[in-house]
Design a protein that fits this description.
about 170 residues; alpha/beta; Dihydrofolate Reductase, subunit A; eight-stranded mixed β-sheet; two-stranded antiparallel ribbon; 10 strands; about 20% helix; binds NADP nicotinamide-adenine-dinucleotide phosphate
């Protein structure tokens, strides 16, 4: 099973502000839906609470240390690794880690592919960051890159990139 991250980050690697995503980007949401449909999604409890409900057509795994936590419509996992094991046991081919920063940091050793939407803005109010400076050759290779102008429902232009980690022993 491949472990993938999917995230949107601004030019300072900001991903969140006040418990939410700091921009409205309809084309990015559409791509997110197309890429993740039918798959397991793993998220931290804070990201789950910002979504408020499971995303249709996908299996939602919510990671929390709270033993009694209830997440209607989702599967509660006690660690990121338990979430990965749950998806693997279910026969998933590609698990999407959808955030937030704590989940990306915890699963960085396992990730093999990163779907990155680089939002061309800066966010002074940002309070959640995921540093992406590790994303460079030779360990990481950019497989595709697409510059996307701001369309209807998009606040900013963005660049969509797909990065893959090079196998350790090719
Ligand atoms: N731009 C993007 O692509 C994107 C994507 C997703 C989220 N976001 C944004 O990112 C922000 C949230 O990110 P975040 O990093 O603050 O929170 P998060 O990763 O969504 O959730 C953090 C929570 O996960 C649980 N957790 C973390 N490590 C754990 C471990 N080792 N074992 C068990 N549980 C663990 C804890 O829950 P408990 O406290 O319940 O124990 C922790 O409080 C929001 O602003 C959200 O909108 C942005």
């Amino acid at each position: 099973m491949r472990v993938s991250f999917i995230l949107a980050a601004d030019e300072d690697d900001a991903i969140g502000a006040g418990g939410d995503i700091p921009w409205r980007m309809r084309s990015d949401l559409r791509r997110f839906k197309r890429l993740t449909m039918g798959h397991h999604l793993l998220m931290g409890r804070k990201t789950w609470e910002s979504l408020g409900k499971p995303l249709p057509g996908r299996v939602t795994l919510v990671v929390t240390r709270q033993a009694e936590y209830r997440a209607p419509g989702a599967v509660v996992c006690s660690s990121p690794e338990e979430g990965v094991a749950t998806a693997r046991r279910a026969g998933e081919r590609e698990l999407f880690v959808i955030g937030g920063a704590q989940m990306y940091a915890a699963l960085l050793p396992l990730v093999e592919r990163i779907y990155l939407s680089r939002i061309h803005t800066r966010t002074p109010a940002a309070d959640t960051f995921f540093p992406l400076d590790f994303l460079s050759p030779p360990e990481w290779v950019c497989r595709s890159r697409e510059e996307v102008p701001a369309g209807e429902g998009d606040e900013y232009r963005h660049t969509f990139e797909v990065w893959e980690r090079k196998p350790q022993n090719p």
